[in-house]
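hey so i finally got around to running the thing on that chain from the lab meeting. sorry it took forever, my laptop kept dying and i had to restart like 3 times. anyway pasting the input first so we r on the same page abt which one it is
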Amino acid sequence: MTTYKTPRKMNIKPQHQAHQPGTDEAMQPTPEYEDLEYQGSGKLLDKVAIITGADSGIGRAVAILFAKEKADVVNIYLEEHEDADKTRSRVEELGRQCLNISGDVQNEKFCQKAVKQVIDKYGKLDILINNAGVQFPQDSFENISAEQLQRTFQTNVFSMFYLTKAALKYMKSGAAIVNTASITAYMGLENLIDYSSTKGAIVSFTRALSLSLVKKGIRVNAVAPGPIWTPLIPSSFSAEYISKEFGGGPMERAGQPREVAPCYLFLACNELSSFMSGQTLHPNGGKVVNG
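ok and heres what got predicted. didnt touch it at all, straight out
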């Protein structure tokens, strides 16, 4: 019998990466993407799942977990080719296919072409995980430029509209959509006002879309993680912020991507969550947000 081991608080060293969404190789410590003792049971047998931003972070952890549950994975990512290859390699080691598609989800035509590429290869689409996102901390609200505001909304919100619209042409009853929101949608964050706003929009998008698709038998839910140790963190925040302020909460630590991934599995799997739609799960280290 497997004995549960309580995750320990990480010794996160001061660090910063100059380019978003960042790479995992430069992180100290590197994120934990997989529970090596977890054995899948075919809960997603032969399903095809699109996961945006699966080159690293939460997306990679979801891709690996889905592969353990016998799904084939499509990783739509920006330009982190080396990290994307790591995801593909691990998925293939687990005996499943992984199609990497590089491009910018801010572009609607790219989203349409990416979904068409998936259909051409697999002939179907069962699960859509809208996970890609960016954040640009600013100490003052006045420092949020029009360009930053547009990019944050285009990447975090518009991409979900584009991909979902393209995907719905091929998704049938029993399909599932899971969107990545954030604890900031419920609590806000003073240095991430535009990012928090997009995450609030995602929660509303999830609720409204779930009502729109319920009669088609397609469920729509969301996950709102708290502070999770992913490449987006050192590529967004200063080394000083990471060393002094990142993490915290009742559990007094940041979470690992592998600790969030099971929420996506639960919501994507009809066997586990057939009576849930329009809802949000909160893997945030114990913070009660009443959302």
